[in-house]
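Dear Dr. V.,

Thank you for agreeing to look over these. As mentioned in my earlier message, I'm a first-year student in the group and I'm still getting used to reading structure tokens, so any feedback on how I've presented them would be very welcome. I ran two proteins. I've put each sequence directly above its structure. The first is here:
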Amino acid sequence: LLFLSCIFQMDTTQESYLDLFPLDAIVYLTPDSEDGKYIDPNKVYILGGLVDESIHKKLTLRRAQEQSLQTARLPIHEYMVKNVNTKNYHSETLAINQVFDVLSTYYDTRSWPAALKAGVSSGKGYVLRDAVK
């Protein structure tokens, strides 16, 4: 298990995050959350893991609900739009390194546009609203 706090202290452990932190301090990041909550430095964010989105839809959301955890998603809807592309492919599911890039850039800049630009690759089919002409 890999977890990180808002100050980006990273640890690995065999223990469950459910045993390490109070339930009300844990937020499970999942692209399927309806909550585009903003980062709270007093929370511990769980990055869901590598999931094949075509086979395991809403897996991380269901896992969080089964564990009675709060969920949140990155504010892609709020700052980005679908970009026209030849593959007509759009995905809000990011790899762990991309989520980490978004979170660390946000922590440094306090700017969601800068953070999303840093972490959401063009291959995901989204661009910042301001980039659309």
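The second protein is here, in the same arrangement:
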Amino acid sequence: FQVKSENRKTIWNTEEVPEGSEFDDTWDPREQPEYQILFKQCVGTEDVFFGMSRKDPSTACCEDMVIKIKLPETKYSDITLDIQDKVLDLRTPKKKLLLHLPYRVDSKNGKARFLSEEETLEVTLRVSRKFDFINFF
């Protein structure tokens, strides 16, 4: 069994590097803000009353992921947010959050809103799933 390598001087393969590691900055002194990951599910009467679909309350049946990030003493204009398929990168002058997401998301069609009275950034992302017997729409 012999593995062919294009370049013998490489010390690792690109598949071995975790996605989003280019955002890691271990020397950045900013603290990580408090955050919460919630899941949302579209439920209709056929689900609630008749049980016609195969949906259950698990995250496997949820369509959206909502990340709530507490950002005290932060202005909306100071927030930099970058969303990739599996990574959320948030930076403010005082806080930094690099979050490896539990599911792949549609990074092009998310929504973010800043709730100034709660000092919270709420990011809603559509979960990208392969179609199966539960996620069929």
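From my reading of the second output: The mean pLDDT is 78. The CA atoms of residues 41 and 68 lie 17 Å apart. Does that match how you would interpret it?

Kind regards,
E.
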